[in-house]
Amino acid sequence: MLSDPNAVREIFQADPDLLHSGEANALFTATVGRSSVLVLDGAPHMRQRRTLVPPLKGERMRAFLDAMRLETLEALSSWPVGTPFPTLPTMRRVTLRVILRTGLGLQPGSELDRFERKIETFLSHGRQRYALVLMTIVPIERLAGSRWVPLFRQLSDLDDDLFALISARRRGERNVTSQNVLDDLLAAKHEDGAPLADREVRDALITILIAGHETTALALAWALSEIAQHPDVVDRLSDELVRVTGGGPLAAEHLPALEYLDGAIRESLRLRPVVPFVVRKTMQPISITGREYPAGVVLCPCSYLVHQREELYPHAGEFRPERFLERKYGPHEWFPFGGGNRICLGMPFALYEMKVLIATLLSQVRPTRPTGACSKARRYGIVLGPDDGGRIVVQRTRADI
Ligand code: HEM
Known about the structure:
Blueprint: H1 5-13, E1 19-20, H2 29-32, H3 42-52, H4 65-76, E2 85-86, H5 88-103, H6 110-126, H7 131-137, H8 140-143, H9 150-170, H10 181-187, H11 198-229, H12 231-245, H13 259-271, E3 280-282, E4 286-288, E5 291-293, E6 298-299, H14 303-306, H15 323-326, H16 347-362, E7 365-368, E8 377-380, E9 383-386, E10 391-396
Antiparallel strand pairs: 1-3, 2-10, 3-6, 4-5, 7-10, 8-9
Helix pairs in contact: 4-5, 4-16, 5-6, 5-11, 6-9, 9-11, 11-13, 11-16, 12-13
This protein binds protoporphyrin IX containing FE.
């Protein structure tokens, strides 16, 4: 477990052929599939990664703003006023519906609701506290595809729907209005000019659902509870929002000006990283900051530990969004999304979504924390989130919800 930023920099800059990540993730193959970026290394990893970069690029996010904002407003309308409640269920629902709308291009309606139900049931297995332990001890590769195991029965059911959707889109049947990842993947070509096979498209879609949904929901639950805990931060965020939007609906051009909100999100990901470390397996002996490691060990650049270093983050235990306005941090100093050739492909998507969701929420309600609330980190499958689901209390500030 590495906590020295210089060691982290060397690892992120090392030759990817010397440090493999896909191999360390092999136990996910049964769910994400053999062509998923998560489980590949070397040239095959780069080949698949290249196809996912364009649809998840920062500039593409503008097309996703309305889906994010409208889903948030819809979810917010059922929040109780003046009574403590956990935000995690809302964050899960909104982020799942957003990824279904922007990833698959589904419109609100029965098809989206059906996918939502199926994916929610399937993903709920991976959230169990001991999911990772079970995946390690159970011969999951041999059980893959078995209809006796609920996880694989549900996955194969979901796959049927995904393959049917892929075929329908290939035939040109569309009920979509905006840009979406599925259409981009169907139009994409590998470097040799070959289009993606159905299986590659399916693996890419399942990968972004698995890698992107629970992570973003937990990061949002943490961020909102940290913000709510600090009334001075809520004041500053609300002032910034009114100054930038003039009190009107949030638009894409407002987002770059919401700098303090950006700092609050980065600070929350610093203090409460949902993926506290990443993994790299050494393929050959390697020297990192002068220390020799043999082949076959797993080195873990640990964001949780680096993010606690006092010389980088004075008063590291405190939530201080302004530190990100006062100083720029390097990719080896702040890395909740990992780094190097494996840096999270959904980072622009997640940061954009977090910004839109929190800005939309703060335009409607004022959050506080219930008296005495104190969230501790607990494991949800392989990621960390607040053990109380991020409990807050809200008061309405706008009458139109
Ligand atoms: C706050 C939310 C998120 C966090 C904290 C997060 C964090 C991470 C981390 C730490 C990694 C491993 C990076 C490494 O090994 O260096 C990763 C990989 C990945 N993430 Fe995310 N992620 C988030 C959201 C998303 C979203 C929304 C998507 C897709 C829409 C996504 C897609 C991926 C993919 C495809 C990879 C594998 C990249 C590769 O191996 O080349 N993530 N993520």
